[in-house]
Amino acid sequence: MEAVQAAVEQACADFKDLSKARQAEQVLLQFRQSARPLPACRHVLDHSGCLEARFHAACTLREALIREWAVLSADEVLALRSYLLHYAVVRCASLPDPAAAGGPAANALRSTLLAALAVLVKRSWLDADCNPDATSGAAFFAEMQSVVGDGSSSSGDGSYPAAAHTAAAVQRAGIELLEALVTEFGVVTASPLGLPWDYHVRACRDMEERYLQGFFHHAVSLGRASATSGSALRGSDAGVCAACLTLMASILGWSFQGSGGGRAFAPIVPAVQAAASKRGELAAVAPGQAWSTLLLAPETAYWIVELLVVLASQQGLHPHQAALSTKARALLVAFCALSGEVLPRRPRPNMRLEGAAAEEAAAATAARSGYLRQMLRGVLLFSYPADAALARARAGPGEEPLLDACRCLVALSSNHGVRALNEASVGLLPGGGVGGEQQGQPGILMVQLEAVTVALILAGGVGPCDDEPWLHECADMCVEAWASLLVPEPGAYLAMATGGPRTQAPAAPQAASVFRVLVEACLRDAAAGAHEDADDGDEAAAAAAAEDWMVRAAALARASPAQSLGMLVELLRGARGRLSECAAGGADPSEVLEQVVWLLRMAAHALADSGAGETPLMPLMLLDEAEVHGPGAPAILALCEALLEVPALALEPGAAPVLSPRLMETCMWALSRWADTYLLPEEPLPGDLQQAYGAPTGRAGHLLDGIVRVALACLVNFPGEALLHGAVCGTLLPVLVRRKPLCRALVALSSWQELCHAFASRAPALCLSMGSKTQRSLAQCLCLASAGVMGPRAGQAYVTQLMAATVQQLGELGSRPDLDSVVSLAPEATRVACLVEAVRGCTRATLSATQPAVFALTSPLLTPLLRLQHAFRANPLVVTSLLKLAAEIVENHISFLRPAESDAVMRWVLELLQQYSLDNRFSNAQASAARVLQQEHHADQCRDLQALLKLLSHVTQRDIADADMWRHQSHPGSPGRTPGRSPAGTPTGTSGGGMHPDSPTRHSGGNAAATEAAVEEPQLDASQVVLLGLHIILPLLSLELLKFPKLCHLYFSLLSYVLEVYSPQAAELPPAHFATMLSSLEFGLSHADSQVAQASLEGLAGIARHQHKSLALGGPGFSAYAMPSGASATCHLLELLLRRLLLEDMSLELVDLAADALLPLMAVEGGAFGSLCGQLAASQPDPASAAKVAAALSKLLPPGGMHHPGSNLSQQTKRAFRQNLTGVVSDVRGLVRMR
What are the φ and ψ backbone dihedral angles of 972, each rounded to 5 degrees? Predict the structure, then answer.
């Protein structure tokens, strides 16, 4: 033993010498990996005076404890536990020992020994059946209590400083041991022990149910005693108070049952701080109702706030006091983040309670109010006065106290209503003191939050600052707190709707003041930014951050609309006036332009929500104000008018010099957001707003005419401005054609007719200045407006007149005899792409009423489009556009056409695919090209494959259309359309413009010659087209390309459909193509995206069902395909699915889908299933675990034994199998997963 000690000590000394460090590292590594090193570790710990040697011995002991647990007897475990307990708690706290002197080396040694002891305790926590061993835990804690008590009392009566220090150090070591246990027993922070995951979960839950509250109560008691006695401030408690604070924060960071399960709360104070450091995104602390009494008791948190009060009053904190303050503040943040059932519910205002229920509700309300009162005292302590707090953050101890105060504010505001917080702040004195509560006395929270927010904004917190990044973070958290506090409490609108009194929000006056300061600061910041250059990346990130900021700031504006919106009206009209003055006087408008841009965005945010994914409605606060004709109602109307006045500058001849594309982009965005909510909406507007903007016979038509003229001016007067053109055609116009009332008003306007005429005639001023994507969007919007034309014939004439010239030019280009000679000319390629995209936009806008006209326009182009594809085969822009157009044609027409017309389109698609395969420019790609060229190549290939996959997905709608036609002919009285599944994810017959319920089932039209030719030939099946497309796609597909999300989703959606519906044809694919499909299926099963995994499981289920059915009928199924190992493809898929289910992290939500594939695979590969189950059981570390795994897997088998290929898998059998599989997966995962 002495030799081992000497070698370790020498290696620790040599490690400090760079020339000997490598050799010393090898010696220490050999020591850690040696067999049965526990006696040597104990010898080094007992006799070595070198702390580094003892540290390495502690690390080796911890690793050996895990590695050699199986060979340790019960007596050896108990002896080692007692040794570690005495050593870490008593010896390391005794001053004669170097480990008690403190310092990094001593702290590392003590923490390593405590971690080793925690591992040992957890390893022996459960019995052989993974059930809690109550005697083991109780015995350990009894021994621990005895050791800590003896260690404290053996230090004498405490009259000597050394004895007192030792007694306190023993107490601190006991608290640190509890903290180590909490860390080790936490599911997320558990050490790898080589145990099933179920062991960790059970130990964690048992610790929570039996001991965790006791730990917390013990830490509160010791910490409070140390703090109130003054020993913590003097530093004579040996760190007991700091250890208690750490343990309390660790427990509050526990992943409690029912609080999210897998949420990763790291149980250490720095992790609590880290979770709170990003814009106030705090991890919610939700321990449950059982903790309510303990956590909300006054004595639990009162002493923490008092400790912070004393520390804040001192000047020049000692290091131990500064560390104590940091820990206490972090714990205060965690307390403020309490949420969920731990907080008693406040009774509703109109709820009547009597007797015991009333007393219980009053007690709960008092507990919650007392808790909030203590939390607010801590917040005020570091935020009052606001100017002084900001000055301290800039010059004094640092910004962390102010950051913690802001974190507390945002946590409290997200979990409590403004009234509860305001009531709790009544009687609080500035700086965290407590005064007498007087009847009717207002709370100071809103006033203080206003002061802090204003101070941060005035200091420059409205924008990021490289020198003081925390400044913007604090201001952002304060604005976020305001946004949470200004959300109306539940029941407020219901009370007003039922005739209750209308009351102003408690924070409205302060919100108006904060909003004024915020707007003024942002306008100054915008003016200063007019002379700064930012690259595109920075500008995009700044714009996204500004949008988030404005969403929260809009809540401030809506809280007090009379003041806030009125101020925006004045500022916006004033800025517009200054802009006109700049235009008249020739002054530099840069600063004014930036201010107008900011004001426009802010006004649009204040007036309307985004409306994304839902019917746009007025914000509730503004709606209520307008309905009751409150003082803010005129301001709402005035701000709408002021917003509309800015885009009107585009129609003033003298304003052209000051109109920048950036300003007009913002105008288009603001107009679209405003019009989506206020202009001829589906729901009537309240008050004067309805007469102004909601009545078709009012001035809404004139406003709409002006908006269209502004849009046309932006398209014509700003040539080459792609972003502006995109804002007009991709943002504003789609809003104007979204609702039928707007479409009816549009088609009657002279301005809209002027825009349609310019597009229909391909006017150079309009079309030559726009890109292909913009022309597609414009054509789509113009055609969608046909919904406002009265009658199908008029709608068809509208579309025909609009698109005739475009279709004619595209047809002439495709029919040119010298087409090959113009391919190399760039203008011609651009022209072709623009024309194709325009036709594509028209096709996308197909409505049931206009479908015959659109198909009549499109069908003559089929042959010219094939010629264009071949001629421009080397131009990726044109080829991709043509493929996308083909997909749009199939999607929007296949469900409407008669069989002969549908067959003609199918044959055209087949010819298009064959020609693409012959012309494919990706088949001979050079793998040795430069990386940039490879990326461009992959991007081009990805776009082509996406277009092909969309085309094939839409072709599958032909199956549903044919089935519907057959059913309709067989049963004439049945409905004409049945929605069905398609890989595109849309109900058949409703894509694009959709199939209107009152439209006829089939429409005639198109190329008569093509129709007659199609009649003479046998009808083409959709499966032939789809499988030919897969024949083209599979050789081009790679795992690298499947990393593109859109391509991945499209491919697996189509693959699942093919394997489910066309499984007999898929079983006849060439081996190379089937191997590619199989590898991609394997990739999809392990994909993190749930949609991809779901589609892969559906495809796998299709293979399994077909194999089972085919073998039952005596067919080969997929048996012809074998893996390189010699196993069949279905056997490989069975193994893959079992591994994904049992050993990996497949979501339990997908288990039912997996059951649909696993059951038929088990039936056709019964022997392989039994072998795999046996291998899994045999891989367990002990016979008991192997027996449990085998017993769990046996539950998947039916009572009569293994299924066979000819067995009948009834619905009842499938249902029972699904129910069993979920439980089996949970059980087996808990047994076989190791950590």
Answer: -55, -25
Q: Are 251 and 182 in contact (CB under 8 A)?
A: yes
- The neighbour count for residue 579, using CB atoms within 10 Å, is 22
What is the DSSP track for 708-765?
HHHHHHHHHHSTT-HHHHHHIIIIIHHHHTSSHHHHHHHHT-HHHHHHHHHHHTT-HH
How far, in Å, are 160, 1066, 1083, 1129, 1130 from residue 1078 at the CA level? 78, 11, 9, 8, 10
Quote the DSSP letter at residue 279: T
Could you tell me the sign of the dihedral formed by the alpha carbons of 152, 155, 158, 163, in that order? negative
Are 956 and 1026 in contact by the 8 Å Cβ rule? The answer is yes
Q: DSSP class of residue 994?
A: -
pLDDT tens-digit series, residues 78-106: 999 999 999 988 888 776 777 766 788 88
By the 8 A CB rule, do 1225 and 1219 touch? no
- In whole angstroms, give the CA distance from residue 34 to residue 29: 9
Q: What does the alpha-carbon distance between residue 633 and residue 614 come to, in Å, rounded to a whole number?
A: 25
Strands (E), 891-964: none
What are residue 433's DSSP bridge partners? 429
* Percentage of the chain modeled with pLDDT above 70: 84
Q: Residue-wise over 130-150: b if at least 16 C-beta within 10 A, else e?
A: bebeeebbeebbeebeebbee
Q: 126: which strand partners? A: 132
- Is the CB of residue 1061 less than 8 Å from the CB of residue 1106? no
Which residue type, as a one-letter code, is found at position 887? A
Residue 1087: pLDDT band with limits 50, 70, 90: confident
Q: Yes or no: say if 1110 and 1116 are a contact pair by the CB < 8 Å rule.
A: yes
pLDDT in tens, 1029-1078: 888 888 888 888 888 889 999 999 999 999 998 888 888 888 888 888 88
Q: Which residues pair with 230 in a beta bridge?
A: none
- pTM of the full predicted structure? 0.83
Rounded Cα distance between 401 and 465, Å, is: 19
Which tens digit of pLDDT belongs to each residue from 207-231?
999 999 999 999 999 999 999 999 9
Spatial contact of 365 and 346, defined as CB atoms under 8 Å apart: yes
| pLDDT at residue 999 is higher than 80 | no
Instruction: Give, in degrees to the nearest 5, the angle at Cα 302 between 301 and 304.
Output: 65
Q: For 484-538, give the DSSP string.
A: HHTSPPTTHHHHHHTTPPP---TTHHHHHHHHHHHHHHHHHHHHHHTT----HHH
